[in-house]
Each structure stands twice: as C-alpha cells, then as structure tokens.
C-alpha cells in the first residue's frame, strides 16, 4: 500500500472512530467502491441527518392537519473522509458521486467529513446539482 | 404585454474601457423581464457623487453575463466610445438642430409631468382645506395656509422650467448598431459556464461578495425572493482547498443558503443543446 493510500485509510479510520464514539452512528463499515481509490464510510446516524426542504414542508403540513409529528426514520449515509489540508477538484468530487449507487429518492448525497490535525471533524452535506437549502 | 420573440429588439450593451454598461431604461427593464439579468446600478450624479447608496443608471454587467446574453441571442455589444466619437464628429447642422429639438421635447415632457404633479398636490390640498372650512372648529387661518401652499407650488414650478435636461442615454442620436463588436464565441470556454447555466435555467444573480462568494443566486427576481445559493465557479481540474468548502458551507448555512460549487465538465458532450454541460454540487453544514 503506497503513502497516499495509507493517508486516505488513516483519515477514514479517524473519522470512523469519531462517528462511532462521538456521534453514536451505528452499523459503520468501510467500503471500497469500484473505480474509486478513496475508502468510503457507510453508516446509520442516530436520527435522520438530512430532510429535503419539500419534505420538510410536507411534514409540517402533515403535523398541522393531523396534530401528530411526522415520523422520519434515519437513513444510511455515505461519508467521504478528507483532511482539511487536502485540495479537491470538481472532477474528483464528481468521481465520488459517480461511484455511488443511485439514491432511492432525491439527489445523490454524501457527508463530507473534514478532519483537522487536532482531531476536530466537521461534517458537511454535499449533494449533486442545485438543491435548494433547508429551512431552519 | 409580451411580444413575440422575433419582434423583440436585441439589447445594446455598451463596452466602455472594458466595462459593460446598459444606459437605456427600456433595455434595462427588458433585460430584467426577459433575460433574468439585473446588473448592478453604478450611475451617480456628477454634483453629489457621494450619494453612493442610491445609484442609478447605467447598470453594469459582468463579462460572463454579457457572454451568456450574447450566446443566448438576447444582446449585442458595441464599442460605445468609437460610436460616440463618430456620431459627434459627423454631426451636421441638421442633426444638431434635430438633437437640440429632441432635448427640448424631453424637457417639455418633464415639465408637463412636474406640472401635473403640482396640480395634483394643489387639488389634494384644496379638498383638505375645504373639509376644514366645513368643519365648524376650523378657523380662517386654515384657508390662508392653503393659499401659501399654492404659491410655494408655483415657485417650485418656475424652478422646473429653468432645469436643464441631462439625458441618461444617447439612443436618439447614436445609431444603435454602429461599431457592433463581433460575438466573441472563442472566449475561454471553461469560464462563465456556470453563469450561463444558471441564467438559462431562470436563476437571477447578484454580486456575491457580501457573502464571500462570486454570485448570490436567486430562484426568481431578487426583489421577490431570498437567495438560495452562494455560488463559486471552478475549472474542472482546478484545485479547491477543503478549507474553502468548509468556510463557504458554514457561512452559507448561517444565512440560510447553500454553498454551490460548479463548472463545466469537458468530457461530457451534449449534442442536443448549445448549453455547456455543467456539473454542480450544493453544500450545507450537516448540523453535527
């Protein structure tokens, strides 16, 4: 295994630990996707991580009409672990998106985990295409 | 009233010392209605140039916006310095008289509008005064005040007649398509693709510097909608520091927007469309 592979594997394992211990994700696994040199992490967050704004509106309407809160089960997420000092390109991001299996509904999305040297990990949701922001 | 497309006039964009400006108010409104392009108001009064919060015509367009408009067949670019120079040098006595005549007619039109406004104000004041008169509690002083109002309206009126008219555009005496520049289709084709893509999909853009990006992207007219995206364009193989994604994503989420990065994908060809194939990614803070 060469140096860059080792680096990517180390970053992925640090993020893996962070997801498991700090954010209580379950069923975590490291995947090697065909056509992709970087490892991808897949796991189940304790609650739904992302709700599309149109689904948010639908959920609010449901709550208003029935008086009960709409139930949204957590969904498995793909996590791409990167180091903060890395530089990515549109083409490398597109390669990651292309390697993912098709999303069940809505656009393909990944969780981008950026790891810093002090072990801080920040998480961003990256979606394919122009997806309007969530209301909060 | 929407005109059929073949009757719509091409919009004239003036290129002056490397900047792209539109002076004609009708062209500006057509750009906004038909081509979802706002531009940025950059004009100010020569006498009070410090009033820079309320800028007026002309509007300035970005080079990539101009490129997209020209490609879409909505506008054309002219070398306005050369057009003006030749128009002014070739001004014969007849043209000169016609130009002065056009200034005079504009002035008369402005005068008429002012006169109508003061007449309207005077009539409103008169009806108010009449109401006060009928009101038993009101004194004669109210009527006197009304008269004073009338005289001040008159003095304002005489000021108007002494006002000169400074036309904001010179459409009347510079031939509109003189010195038209050829459409620069061979310009660096990787840059501006995101702008072209967003314009053709009905998005509006304003400068994004206030939110640390190149564009603020609106789903409709910025007067009616909040921006949905802070957008940056990158080349397909251009390096993007992860810190920029983190910073842009965090800031955009803090102002209820998504951070959008995108650019032209060179390998993907779309023979069915003249539009570039643009790939974009929306980034939001995950909240964890």
UniProtKB/TrEMBL annotation, chain A:
GO terms for cellular component: tRNA-intron endonuclease complex. GO terms for biological process: tRNA-type intron splice site recognition and cleavage. It comes from the Eukaryota. This is tRNA splicing endonuclease SEN15. Belongs to the SEN15 family. Keywords: Endonuclease, Hydrolase, Nuclease, tRNA processing. Residues 15-136 form the tRNA-splicing endonuclease subunit Sen15 domain. The keyword Disulfide bond does not apply. GO terms for molecular function: nucleic acid binding; tRNA-intron lyase activity. The keyword Transmembrane helix does not apply.
From TrEMBL, chain B:
It comes from the Eukaryota. GO terms for cellular component: tRNA-intron endonuclease complex. This is tRNA-splicing endonuclease subunit Sen34. It comes from Trichoderma parareesei (Filamentous fungus). Constitutes one of the two catalytic subunit of the tRNA-splicing endonuclease complex, a complex responsible for identification and cleavage of the splice sites in pre-tRNA. It cleaves pre-tRNA at the 5'- and 3'-splice sites to release the intron. The products are an intron and two tRNA half-molecules bearing 2',3'-cyclic phosphate and 5'-OH termini. There are no conserved sequences at the splice sites, but the intron is invariably located at the same site in the gene, placing the splice sites an invariant distance from the constant structural features of the tRNA body. Residues 139-148 have a biased composition (Gly residues). Its EC number is 4.6.1.16. It is an enzyme of class 4 (lyase).
